[in-house]
Specification:
mainly beta; 6-stranded antiparallel β-sheet; 5-stranded antiparallel β-sheet; 31 strands; about 0% helix
C-alpha cells in the first residue's frame, strides 16, 4: 500500500427498519475504518470529501473519501503505532483538516505533520521530545497560523503492567496530576511555545473555528470527580477562565464542542449524584447567552453545527437501557423535543474506532457515523429528511439484537 493508491470499497445501501431512512455503508474492508473524532474538522471540497482513518494491509493510515464517486485515496504510508495523551485512540493517526490552509494536520510518534490531501505531499512541522506524551488533536487556529495540542510528562503506569485497553489509564492519570502543557506550534516556522501549564490531567484542545486566539480545553478525569471541566484559553495572552462554571457542584459537565459560528460551545451534563435528569446546553465563550435545559434522555455524545438540531449516539448495544440508535433532537424555542430515531447503529463502542461519534454534514442534510455492527468498524451516511416524519424513540421500540 502506497500513497495515492485508490480503493473502491463495495458500498451497500439499505433502508433502516425503524425510520425508513436511506443508509449507505461507505466502507467494507477487513480492517477498521472510522471518521475523525466529532470535534475535529474533517470536511473539505464543499462538504463532498472528508479525511478518515483506516486499517489496511496491516497498518493504520489516513485516507480521503470522495462522496461523489465513493473513491478512497490513501494519503499516508505510516507503519507501527503512535502514542497520544488519553491512551484511548488505539495508537492510530487522526488529526484535523484546516479549511483555511487546505491541509490536514496530524501527530505521529510525537511529530506534527502537514498533509496535502490532493497531492499526498507532507512535511514535518515540529518534533516533540520523545519523553513526552501528546494528544491527537491537530486543529489549527482560525487564521491557520498555529496548531495547538496538549503535552504531558510520563507518569508511573504509562507502561502497563497488565493488559492495556481503552481508558485503562484513566484511573492513574487523574490522581497522578502530571505536568500538562498547552502548546502552540507556528506552522510556517515550527516554533513551539507553551501557553498554559498545570499539574493536572488535561485533554481535548479545541480551537474556535472563527476566533484565532481562543480555544477550549478540559480538566480530564472521572466526570463526577472533576471540579471544573471546560476552560477557555487565549493563546496570545495565556489568560484562562471557566466556561459554564460548575461552582454549584450539581452537574458533571463534558463533551464540549464548538458550534460552526465559533462563538458558542455545546455541552451536556448529568447530576453528580446520578439522580435526576441530564442537561444539554450551550453558551458563548465568554459565558454570556447561556441556554441550558433539562434533558431527560441519554446519549454518550452529542454534536451539531448549531443549536437548532442536535444528534446523539444513544447507548452501546447490549447495555441497559439499550438504545443503540442514532437520535435527533430539535429545538422548539423552549426545549429540545424528541428523540426521533434516525437509524439503528448497533455498535459496541469497544474502543474509539467503534464509537459512533455522529456528526452532521456541513449542509445538515446527512449524518456520518461509525459502527462495528458487521464486525469491523465501518462508516455510514444516513439522510436526515423531515424531523417530524421520524418515529419517536419510545419504550416499545426495541433494537434487534440477535
Amino acid at each position: 500500500m502506497r500513497k495515492g493508491d485508490i480503493y473502491h470499497d463495495d458500498t451497500f445501501t439499505y433502508h433502516d427498519p425503524y425510520s425508513g431512512r436511506q443508509v449507505i455503508r461507505l466502507t467494507d474492508y477487513t480492517g477498521h475504518s472510522n471518521h475523525l473524532y466529532f470535534t475535529d474538522p474533517c470536511w473539505f471540497n464543499e462538504g463532498r470529501s472528508f479525511v478518515f482513518t483506516s486499517d489496511r494491509d496491516g497498518h493504520s493510515n489516513l485516507f480521503r473519501y470522495d462522496l461523489d464517486d465513493y473513491k478512497i485515496t490513501q494519503l499516508t504510508e505510516l507503519q507501527g503505532r503512535s502514542i497520544e495523551n488519553e491512551r484511548v485512540f488505539d495508537h492510530r493517526p487522526a488529526g484535523a483538516y484546516s479549511a483555511v490552509n487546505h491541509r490536514h494536520y496530524y501527530w505521529w510518534q510525537n511529530g506534527l505533520y502537514e498533509l496535502d490531501v490532493d497531492t499526498c505531499e507532507e512535511r514535518l512541522v515540529y518534533q516533540a521530545p520523545s519523553d513526552k506524551v501528546l494528544g491527537i488533536h491537530g486543529i489549527t487556529s482560525a487564521d491557520g497560523r498555529y496548531v495547538c495540542n496538549m503535552v504531558r510528562d510520563r507518569v508511573d503506569g504509562d507502561t502497563p503492567a497488565t493488559i492495556d485497553y481503552p481508558y485503562s489509564h484513566f484511573p492513574h492519570l487523574y490522581p497522578s496530576k502530571p505536568l500538562t502543557q498547552v502548546i502552540r506550534v507556528e506552522i510556517s516556522t515550527g516554533e513551539m511555545q507553551v501557553v498554559h501549564e498545570d499539574h493536572r490531567f488535561m485533554t481535548h484542545v479545541n480551537l474556535s473555528p472563527t476566533m484565532p486566539d481562543i480555544l477550549t480545553f478540559c480538566h480530564e478525569g472521572p466526570w463526577h470527580q472533576v471540579e471544573q471541566r471546560i476552560w477557555g484559553l487565549n493563546i496570545q495572552t495565556g489568560a484562562t477562565w471557566k466556561i459554564r462554571p460548575q461552582d454549584d457542584d450539581n452537574f458533571a459537565i463534558g463533551h464540549e464542542y464548538w458550534f460552526d459560528d465559533g462563538e458558542h460551545i455545546g455541552y451536556h451534563g448529568r447530576p453528580r449524584d446520578g439522580k435526576g435528569d441530564h442537561v444539554f446546553g450551550y453558551v458563548r465563550w465568554d459565558n454570556s447567552e447561556k441556554v441550558e435545559v433539562r434533558f431527560p434522555f441519554h446519549s454518550f455524545h452529542f454534536a451539531s453545527n448549531g443549536h437548532q438540531m442536535i444528534v446523539g449516539d444513544g447507548t452501546r448495544v447490549f447495555s441497559h437501557p439499550d438504545e443503540p440508535f442514532i437520535q435527533l433532537f430539535k429545538w422548539d424555542g423552549e426545549r429540545y423535543i424528541g428523540p426521533r430515531v434516525l437509524t439503528m447503529h448497533r455498535s459496541t463502542f469497544n474502543g474509539q474506532h467503534a464509537h459512533c461519534h455522529p456528526r452532521f454534514t456541513p449542509d445538515d442534510k446527512q449524518v456520518l457515523y461509525t459502527s462495528d455492527l458487521t464486525g469491523y468498524s465501518n462508516m455510514y451516511l444516513v439522510e436526515v429528511g423531515d424531523f417530524e416524519d421520524l418515529p419517536l424513540l419510545t419504550a416499545d421500540i426495541k433494537p434487534q439484537l440477535t
